[in-house]
Write a structure and sequence with these properties.
Length: 241
C-alpha cells in the first residue's frame, strides 16, 4: 500500500484530493484550523478501510513544525511516497496597507512550508521512488491586482518546483498544478466579479474539483517521465489575463 501526505486536506480541494488518493493510498490528512472537518474525513475514510487515514495537526509556520509533521507521516505507516503541498493562505494585500505579519503568513503557507516539508521528506520519498505535487496558481505567473504577496509566494513555489525537480532527481519527481477558477475564494461574494472572471475564460465556464483531482492523479500514476512541470488547469484563463 502507498502512503500520501496532503497538507490542508480537511476541506475544499485538499479534501477531494485526499478522498481520491485514499482509493489506493493510506493518507495523512494535515490540518491547521479545521480539526472537526479533519476528524470527520478521517473517520469516513477509516470506515471504508480501517487504519488507512490519520489526521495530524500542524501550523506549518517553521522548519521545526514541518519536521514534526514529516516525522508523524513517516511513523504512521513506515514512509511516504506522495507529498501534496496544498495548504495555502489567500487574501488581498493592497500596496500601502500590507503588513509584515501578512507577508510572513502568506510566504509561510505558500512557500516556506512546501520547501521545509519537501526537504524533511526527501529521504523517504527517494527511497520509495516518490513524487511531490505542489498546488501553484495561474497567478504565480500572471499577477492579480491587490494580491502582490500571494502572487510572489506562488511564483516562488513555481521556481521551488523546478529547483526541487533538479535537486531530487532521479529518485523523486516534482511537479505542480496551477488551478484557475475552480473554487471561488470564500471571501468573494460579488456575483458581478464572478461573472466577469467567467467571461474571460476561453472554455466559458468554471472548472470543478475533479479537474484538479484528475490532473493530480495523472501526475501520481501515469507520468513517470514528467518532472519540473507546472500544469495549468484553468480552461485557458491564463491566455486572457
Amino acid at each position: 500500500m502507498n502512503n500520501a501526505l496532503i497538507t490542508g486536506a480537511a476541506v475544499r480541494l485538499g479534501c477531494a484530493i485526499a478522498r481520491d488518493l485514499h482509493h489506493d493510498h493510506n493518507v495523512i490528512v494535515h490540518y491547521r484550523n479545521s480539526k472537526v472537518e479533519a476528524q470527520q474525513l478521517v473517520a469516513e475514510l477509516n470506515r471504508k478501510r480501517p487504519n488507512s487515514a490519520l489526521a495530524v495537526h500542524s501550523k506549518l509556520n517553521s522548519s521545526v513544525s514541518c519536521q514534526q509533521l514529516a516525522a508523524a507521516a513517516n511513523n504512521a505507516w513506515g514512509g511516504v511516497n506522495v507529498l501534496v503541498n496544498n495548504a495555502s493562505a489567500f487574501y488581498s494585500t493592497p500596496i500601502g496597507g500590507s503588513t509584515e505579519a501578512q507577508w510572513d503568513a502568506l510566504i509561510e503557507s505558500n512557500l516556506k512550508a512546501p520547501f521545509f516539508l519537501s526537504q524533511a521528506l526527501a529521504p523517504t520519498l527517494g527511497d520509495n521512488a516518490g513524487c511531490i505535487i505542489n498546488m501553484a496558481d495561474i497567478h504565480g505567473d500572471r499577477p492579480m491586482r491587490e494580491h502582490t504577496i500571494y502572487c510572489v509566494a506562488k511564483a516562488g513555489l513555481v521556481m521551488l518546483t523546478k529547483s526541487l525537480a533538479r535537486e531530487l532527481a532521479p529518485h523523486v519527481r516534482v511537479n505542480a498544478v496551477a488551478p484557475g477558477a475552480i473554487l471561488w475564494p470564500q471571501s468573494l461574494q460579488d456575483a458581478e466579479v464572478k461573472k466577469d472572471i467567467v467571461a474571460k475564460i476561453p472554455l466559458g465556464c468554471c472548472g470543478e474539483e475533479q479537474d484538479i483531482v484528475r490532473t493530480l492523479r495523472f501526475l501520481v500514476d501515469s507520468a513517470p517521465y514528467i518532472s519540473g512541470q507546472v500544469i495549468a488547469v484553468d480552461g485557458g484563463r491564463n491566455l486572457n489575463i
